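Weekly puzzle thread! Below is a chain. First person to post its structure in token form gets bragging rights.
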Amino acid sequence: MEDSILKIDDLKKRYGKDTVLNGITLSVSEGEVLVILGPSGCGKSTLLRCLNGLETIEGGSVRFKDEIVNDENGVSSDITELRQKIGMVFQNYELFPHLTVFQNVMLAPTTVCGRDKKEVEKEALTLLEKVGLSEKKDFYPSKLSGGQKQRVAIVRALIMHPEVLLFDEVTAALDPEMVREVLEVMLSLAEQGKTMVIVTHEMAFARAVADKVILLDGGVIVEEADPETFFTHPKSERAKAFLEGFSYERVKGKKSIKKGA
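Winning reply:
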């Protein structure tokens, strides 16, 4: 994991007079899973949106490899192309209600990228099968559970062949029994070596999937460490306070979901 695919340097984001992100600097290596933790309202989702050029920034820069995605001059003029390389999965699915599962997955690669329809159809069926949804391909989103909708959203992102995947609290709106089916898909992607940046409140999942964890609070990174160090020997008082009350099982050998708080 030596090559940085995503670089964030001194990023600053304000809404009016309120500073939401104040000098964020970090990098994500190819094949790395970065998990962003922090209390509600600390800027986690805003940071993800800045990485994808969905929010403008007031200072610093976001680079994908050697390309500027976002800086104080605005988002890149090539942002549509860059978003194909930096895919994002949202908390609220963002599926088109008037399209079937298959049509939702097919839309972007055929209309935005102009890829061969037969090739995309084959890949779409393969991906839907991998997440256990091949039998739901002709269903409309209204006929799916929350967990199924989120798995469709993940497939829709994957079929664009992104080099980085951003996940914005994708289980936050799900019932507890639906959370695991989505997390299992994400764990599988991690095992495949996908580069991911994940915002989550699922502590046990974070520890299982992460290569690196950052704790965001007050618009700054207050702690950055590997997951074992972060969850067992946090250095900052803020991290200790954040983790207080949670319990974890040690994860060894392979990534797996363990019972947490």
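Puzzle host: Confirmed. Bonus trivia for everyone else. The two ends are 31 Å apart (CA to CA).
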